[in-house]
Amino acid sequence: MKKISLLGATGSVGVQTDNVVRHHPEHFQIVALAFGENVDKGLELIHTHRPKLVSVKNKETADKLKGQLASPVKVVYGLEGLIEVAAYPEADVTVNAVLGSIGLEPTLAAIAAGKIIALANKETLVTAGHLVMAAAKEKHVPILPVDSEHSAIFQSLNGEKQSQIKRLILTASGGSFRDKTRDELHNVTIEEALNHPNWSMGAKITIDSATMMNKGLEVIEAHWLFDVPYEKIDVLIHKESIVHSLVEYIDNSVIAELGHSDMRLPIQYALTYPDRLELTDTKQLNLWEVGQLHFQKVDMERYRSVKFAYDAGRAGGTMPTVLNAANEEAVAAFLKGAVTFLDIEGLVLQALEKHHTIQHPTLETIRMVDKEIRRAVQEAIRQR
Ligand SMILES: NC(=O)C1=CN([C@@H]2O[C@H](COP(=O)(O)OP(=O)(O)OC[C@H]3O[C@@H](n4cnc5c(N)ncnc54)[C@H](OP(=O)(O)O)[C@@H]3O)[C@@H](O)[C@H]2O)C=CC1
Ligand SMILES: CC(=O)[C@@H](O)[C@H](O)COP(=O)(O)O
Ligand SMILES: [Mn+2]
Q1: CB 3.0-4.6 Å disulfide test: which of 92, 170, 191, 330 passes with 347?
Q2: End of a domain among 90, 110, 145?
Q3: Domain containing residue 230
Q4: pLDDT digits over 230-244, tens only?
Q5: Is residue 111 over pLDDT 90?
Q6: Quick one: pLDDT at residue 384?
Q7: Domain co-membership, 223 together with 121
Q8: Does residue 103 share a domain with residue 211?
Q9: Does the residue 117 lie in any domain?
Q10: Do 7 and 105 have their domain in common?
Q11: What positions does the domain 1-deoxy-D-xylulose 5-phosphate reductoisomerase N-terminal occupy (predicted)?
Q12: How many A from CA of 128 to the centre of ligand 3?
């Protein structure tokens, strides 16, 4: 029985983790969970899994939740609460599916407590990959990818030697606006941007897919997870999202993982690794039904966010922290209707251009830069 601490329980990945756990009650148990403000969904999950510890976003939500709980559960809140859930002593695995760089300190706390990390929260690795990977190495803690592309790469690597990797190839759907030219992006709406062609996901990552910043973040995530330099990480547009990513070896052999779009597979694999379990209620992949698969080179002018991410990743230090913080603020503003779709890129670029990289940042420095950049982006939005 694997005991799980689940962060971001009410979100898209969280709810699919709940689904995986409910299908295999003999293998998994959720012993602690954290969410933000969705008390109705949170109560449903608490009722199903009966965790011993629950954390929510703030005191107000904690009070609201306590007022509606039928059984005694310890309720905590804020970043401290997230950290307490992440490092919950009874848990074996911490599934981090919270949204944004708020996931960093809980990840570090879970590593310090010796938990296996099943990581969906890519912003953690983008903002401070050097700290997370160094801590995991020191504590001999595995960081198992939940992000579908990274799970595909992890499965395709299957223990092969690092020195034999020629290239990691991350596939990208191209997002909601894949078939639009750059000029056609000026007046796109929030609703159109949220309409991902292949995946049903939370709002922020769906917008990231539309700008293709998601792929940029995933390039940096892959760099840290697999210890591969940026020159050996490529992005390939693949509109069907059937090939989830590929690994090319020095003998030109290319190994990939394929399947229909269903996050329960990478979530479950991170929980069962190195074993596998049956995945119920899923669609088997019959390639004859799919018929054709398409692949296309990425145009870095059309998808500027991918280039920003490569540049920020190569610059290193605090530059990826800036990329991530500016993007989180710009996407949040777009989702509130405060800026246009193309403003997201503009705001990120402005933040990157103004920043002087600090190399080898400590956690304190990362926190300070993250805060400063968010403030600067908010100010830039106010001045528009
Ligand atoms: N969705 C997907 O298919 C995939 C997602 N990912 C990554 O996984 C992460 C989660 O994505 P997704 O599930 O789509 O996101 P969602 O927006 O659907 O869910 C986010 C979760 O985080 C919680 N949350 C947000 N802010 C806070 C906070 N301050 N304190 C505590 N909890 C908080 C939310 O709570 P509440 O709603 O209750 O407020 C919710 O449970 C992201 O990093 C994303 O990039 C990676 C691959 C695929
Ligand atoms: C399911 C998942 O892992 C997402 O990150 C997904 O890959 C988004 O799709 P694109 O970024 O390729 O549009
Ligand atoms: Mn992904």
Answers
A1: 330
A2: 145
A3: 161-261+284-301
A4: 999 999 999 999 999
A5: yes
A6: 84
A7: no
A8: no
A9: yes
A10: yes
A11: 4-129
A12: 18
Is residue 93, in this structure, part of any structural domain at all? yes
Which atom of ligand 2 is found nearest the CA of 196? 13
**Mean pLDDT score across all residues of the chain:** 97
From the alpha carbon of 147, which atom of ligand 1 is closest?
A: 47
Q: What is the 3-state secondary structure (H, E, C) of the chain?
A: CEEEEEECCCCHHHHHHHHHHHHCCCCEEEEEEECCCCHHHHHHHHHHHCCCEEEECCHHHHHHHHHHCCCCCEEEEHHHHHHHHHCCCCCCEEEECCCCHHHHHHHHHHHHCCCEEEECCHHHHHHHHHHHHHHHHHHCCCEEECCHHHHHHHHHHCCCCHHHEEEEEEEECCCCCCCCCCHHHCCCCHHHHCCCCCCCCCHHHHHHHHHCHHHHHHHHHHHHHHCCCHHHEEEEECCCCCEEEEEEECCCCEEEEECCCCCHHHHHHHHHCCCCCCCCCCCCCCHHHHCCCCCEECCCCCCHHHHHHHHHHHHCCCHHHHHHHHHHHHHHHHHCCCCCHHHHHHHHHHHHHHCCCCCCCCHHHHHHHHHHHHHHHHHHHHCC
Q: What is the CATH number of the domain that holds 343?
A: 1.10.1740.10
Whether the CB of 151 sits within 6 Å of ligand 2: no
- 122 and 249 in a single domain? The answer is no
Domain end, chosen from 240, 274, 301, is at: 301
Annotated binding-site positions for NADPH: 10-13, 36, 38, 121, 123, 202
Nearest CA to ligand 1 atom 36: 36
CATH of the domain at 100: 3.40.50.720
Q: Which ligand is nearest to the CA of 13?
A: 1
CA of residue 234 to ligand 3 center, whole Å? 14
- The interface predicted TM-score (ipTM) is 0.99
- Cα of 382 from ligand 3 centre, angstroms: 32
Same domain, 11 and 53: yes
Cα 382 to ligand 2 centroid, rounded to whole Å: 31
